[in-house]
Structures are given as structure tokens and as C-alpha cells.
Amino acid sequence: MPDNRPATPAGQRRGQGEPALELLVHGVGGTTPQEMLGDPRTVRVTGDDTAGIHRRADDADAESRFGGYSGGLTADRSADPLAEPSADRARQRPIPEAYCWSNLTSGNSARALWLLLLPFMVANLAHWMRPAAPAHHRGQRVYDVLVRLVALSLTVLLTAAACEVALDLVAWQCAASERCARGKSWLGPLTGGWWASPGRRLVLAALVPAALTALLWWLSHRTWSAYESASPPPRPPGPTRPLPGGERPALSLPGFWYGRRLVSRLRAAHTAAGLLTVATTLLTAAASHDLRPGGDAVPEALGRALTAVLAAGWAATLLVAVRKGRTESEPDERIDRWASKVLPGAALGALALTAVHAAWPRPDWAPSAQLPGTGVFAWLALLQGALAAAIAVTAYVLHRAAPPGSCAGRCAMGGLGGAAVALLACALGGVLTGGVAQRVADWLDKEGTPGVAGGAIAGPPVLLSWQAAVIPVLLLVVVAFALVAAVRAGRARRRLTPGIVDSYEGEPRELESRSRQIARVVAWARLTDSAPVLIASVTVATVLLGAGALAGAARTGLPPGPAAASWPGPLPAVAQTVQALGSWLMGAMVVLLVAMGRRAYRDAAARRTVGILWDVGTFWPRAAHPFAPPCYAERAVPDLTWRMCTWTARTGGRLVISGHSQGSVLAAAAVWQLDPDTRGRVALLTYGSPLERLYGRWFPSCFGPAPLRALSEEVDCWRNLWRLTDPIGGPVMAGEEGGQEVDRGPLRDPLHYGRTPEHPLPAPILGHGDYQADPAFDAERAALLDRLDRLAEGREAPCVPAQPERRPER
């Protein structure tokens, strides 16, 4: 990028005549510009209602008068927080401006309905959890293909669940049962007239899953136009610090945040898969009648021809889904027209032909207890289990091939986090599927129990009842882990309590309750590091219980309650209770998600709470599932990059991008995207940052020790603040040696132990919030600006070293 900076007058020190800017980026949950800037009067200087840059009204034109800017003075108080600013250490306060991006995740009330697509989001996370093996390793391609196949199976599972409800429970079972259809006037078109035959009822009911597929396509296309199409700023080629394997860090690649082509192709494949699932369901039901001895030859021949057509459609869908992954080396503007338009259109045509075939007159066709083909749920469960096992093997190979130091022993679950998350996404999809089917069956058969003697309908497949029965056992595993974690936190609190007061030298001693209070917060903050153990425990329990459910359903062909009728003692009653409780829990989860969506429609606070889920889960681009909630970072990172590039080029000033919590991840990703010239004018200040503690451990290929080390070597000025009481933030260069000193901490929290004449009231424990209240924040910001100033003048200056602080055991 050309240097358009105005010339600095002779004898005028840089930093006095050129402006300095602090670009604030908030974290999870969002906030308002007024709260970020500490002023009720703010203006938006660029952006829109979804995401924009805001300033105080008085600072709208601050660059034009920066020499006389009255934003106030801050002092470097790293040595003595109570010292008065001196002429040597005083620094002019930078112009503050806030980037507010919370509406990207929680601004629209309809966004809460994305909760129902939670399994898709979880599957997409599995793609980014691959170990940090070299990019040219063959296992990387295998891993990506396996994750995309898992994602495709989830789309088939969702569509099959819609077919189970609409085609099987409603059109096939309830409409054919006089007891079930009694009093349901909305079933009138399916119980009399031209639509009363089984095939035509199925065709009419197939409109529901087909419409669901069309809705998902529309939502994905709409968000694709708004997020994946946000182009990064142009930048001249420049050196980027390579990783130990020789490749460039993934987040520094120009096309990383620009996934138009892949999402468009995956959207076509998943749309085709949904339509083909509906067509396959219709064809399977019709074939069960046509292929019987003595059947009509014409429908049988048409059915065989349609089978070949659908098989070709499935082959094309698989080919499009796995053929090519992400293109990150350069922004890829091209769109695969054949895949994006021809494949979904062909699938829709195949569905139309299958519907005509299913509606063919068959006078002797009578519905059976359950719709033929419901065994697809068992085959899907087996397929997903096999894919998850293959992902685990591939991840193990990649983890072993990772360069030394790329994980430093801190990778979650030894590199198997992606396989565990992929399996949990499948389990979550199964829970939602079973919950919807069980609740709809109970609602249709209000007078009896579906699937047992006296019920008006046969109910959903037996496998779903077995899956419901294992839910209470899985919850017991989670509860047991929570109890163990609580006991460990209590022991840690008692061990930490005696050393708390020693870290506050020169302050009056308080009652031991103050030390216990601080130690308790520190102990509970450490529980975040136990997340890998929880995920591993739940994954192992899911595998064992899922295998047991499959075996029970295949061997008995009955729900757990009736299957246990011959067992001795109280076991039959226990099995019946567990099945009923699990069925209720599966349905309650679906109802809870819908209720959260409805509440978010009316309540902005609830909408913000829902948005917190997406702040963490939708940071990553949609590389595996196109129907997952959209990636807000594909809009936020280009926004921040454009702002830093254009502001520094126009003014020639210094810029500190200041990110809290999730905002620190966005800030680091944006700095990674800068060209070397712009990056030399930008400093990075992070606080409460999960860069290493969460992202580095769970996503080692992008945020592991090697990428973070490369970023620290590329950014001349980077400081990170953290506290022991913070359950999310931590040091970003934990265990790293060499390079610039990035981390400063742990900071004292609370700032003061007891009551003093200057602070007569107890200081609050801040934990994850309000890092600006610590004097270290202003000191580090001033030091970063001074560092940029000295680097521009050619005089190297080390960053302000962290002050030695006595602290409790970590």
C-alpha cells in the first residue's frame, strides 16, 4: 500500500503532530458504543446498523485538530500506579473509537431460530479442530473429506426426520387410523377424496420436507451474500513469517475470510441431498408395493429406472461435496455454475418424477404399521459412527506428524478434539430427531402410547426410543463430572487461601473471608481448563450408550420397556421409566430451543444471550456445513482490516487495536491480514483473551503455539493482559521463550485487598471484565504507542516489561 502520510515538520517529534487512534473491539455478548466510549453522545463514522465504527460526538473530526486534541493525558504508571504524570512520561491520549459487531450475531430476532441448526454448527467446528500437521500432509485432505461427509449425513438426518414426521407419522400412520384421525379436521385432505390413497398422501406430505430444504437453501444463500461475499482489502505482496513446516499461517492467507466458492458448492450439494432424501423415501415406500410377487409391471419398471436416476444423483452429490476444499491462498471469486445451479435443479426434477411415480394409481395398496425404509436411522447411526472413528484415526496420524513444538502438549484431547466434536454433533442431531418424532407421535395419539398395546399408531422407529432411554444415563455422567469438578474447586480454594494475602504487600490484613472469596473465584476460573476432560467423558459415554441402543433395537425390535418385560425383578419398571424420562427429555430439549427462539423475538436481552452462543460457535467460516449459522468473522475481520489500512494510509498515524475477550481474537485475525507496511504502524493490545487458553488448545492448526509465535514475531508491538480470576482469558504465549515479551500478568484482582483511606469500600473482583479499570491498561497502551513512535524514528525500544508481582499459586 502506498505511503500517503503527510510530511512531518522539521524538528517536530512524531506522535505529537500525527494522530494516534485506539480501535476498541468488544467481546462476547456485545455492548453499546456509549458504554465502550464512556459518553452518551456518539456518532457512527462508518459502517451500518449491523456493524460499524463509532466515536464520541466531540471526536468526529479529531484527526484535523490532533495537535490540540483535548482527549486528556495518560501516564505510564507501570512503576508506581499512584504517581502523578511527569513531563517525560506523559502521553497524549489516542482518539478512541469503537467497533460494535454484536448485531452480526444477535441483532436480528430471527437469528435465534438458528438454534435449531446447532448440530450443523458443531460439525463445522470439527473441521477447524484438525491437528497442526503440515499443510501438504495427505491426511489433511482425508480429514477434511471425512468431516464434510459427516456434515452431509447430518443434512440427510434432518431431512429424514422431517420425512419421518410428515410422511410416516402423519400421512402413513395417523391418516390411515380412524382412531388417530378422529377429531383432526386438518387431516381431512388425507383421509378422503382423491388424496386418500397411500401414495398420494405421501406425495402431499412430502411438501413439508421439501419446503424445509428450500428454506435452508434460501437462508444459506441470503447469509452467503451478506457474509462470505465481504471481500478483504487489496494488499501488496510482502513477507509473512512462515511456520516451522515452511507454510504461511492460515489466518494470514488473503482468502481465509472469503469462502464464496466453497459455501456455494456445498450449499448445492446439501440442497440436492435433502431433495434426494425425500425422493428416496417416496420411492422406497412405492417399491415395497411394486416389487411384491404379482405386482404391476409398469410401475415396477418405472421404479427401477428412477432408482438408477436417484443413484446417479447421489453419486453426483457426493462428488460435489468432497471434490475440493477451501481455497485460501487467494480470494476466489469464481462460482461453480454447474454445481450451484444444475445439481439442485436436477435433484428437484428427480423428486418431481418420483412424486408422479408414487401418485400412480394402485388400488390394492394398503399402508402397513410403519412406513417402509425407516431403518435408515440405524444405517445413518452406523455410518456416522464409522466416519467419527475414521476422523479419530486420521487426527491421530496428523497429530503424530505435527512439527515439534506445534502443540507443546496443550492440544485438547491429544488432537482428537475434532473427532469427539464430530461425534457429539451426530449425537445432538439424533437427540433433536428423536425428540421431534417422539413428541409428534404423542401429540397425534393422545389417547394411548405410540408403539405399545392400545396405541392408535405404531409410533416412530424403535431405535429412536432406545436412543431416548440412554439420555438419562448420559446426563448422569455430566452430573457426576460436575460434582467432581466442584470438589476439586473446593480443594483448590482451600489450598490457595493462605497465599492470597501475601500477594498484597503493604495493605492492611482483612478477615480470612476475603482471602476465601478471592481464592474461590480463582479456583472456579480454573475449571475452564477441565473442558477437554468433560468432552472426552461425554464422548466415551456417547459411544458406549449409542452402541448399546443400536444393539438393543436390532436384537429385540421393541422399545426398551416392552423388550425388558421378561427381565427379572424391578428391571422392567426401571427400563420403562428410563425410556419415558428420556423421551420427555428429548422432547423438552426441542421445546426449550423453540421457546428460547420465541423469547428472543420479544426480548432484546434474551436475544443477546442467544447471541453469545454464536459469538463462540460461528467465528469460523462454513467449511463443512453450508446450513450452519453464518460466520460473522467473515464480515468483522474485513471491516477491521479495511479500517486499519485506510486510516493509517490517510493520516500516517499510529494505531492501537484493543480487543477484549472474543474481540481479541477478531483483532489478532485482522492484524494477521495486514500488509507489512500497515502492520508496522499498528500495535495489538489484548486482554481477557482466549487466544491460547481456548482457541490455541482446541484449534491448534490456526492458533497453536507455532502460529501465535509467528504472529508475535510479525507484530512489533503486542501486549496481553490477563488475570487468575478470569475463566476465559489467559496468557497467549504460555511456556514460550524468546521473541518479544507479550504477556503481562497475572494482574491483581481485586486491585486492593482490604479497606484503606484511599479505598474505604471493598474493591470488586473483576474476573473477565473491566480491564480498563487497572492502571496497567493505560500504562501498556501508552508504552505501545511510544514503541511505535520509536520504531518509526529508527530507535528500537523494548516493550514495557511486566512488573514482578507476588501471586498465588496457579
From TrEMBL:
According to the UniProt entry, which residue ranges have a biased composition of type Basic and acidic residues?
51-64, 741-758
Record field: transmembrane: 142-162, 202-219, 268-289, 301-322, 342-360, 376-399, 411-437, 466-487, 533-553, 573-595
- The protein here is known as Lipase (Class 3)
Which UniProt keywords are listed?
Answer: Membrane, Transmembrane, Transmembrane helix
Give the matching InterPro entries. AB_hydrolase_fold (IPR029058)
- Is Transport found in the keyword set? no
Q: Where is this region: Disordered?
A: 1-20, 30-89, 227-246, 732-772
Answer yes or no on keyword Membrane. yes
The major lineage groups are: Bacteria, Bacillati, Actinomycetota, Actinomycetes, Kitasatosporales
Which organism is the protein's source? Streptomyces radiopugnans
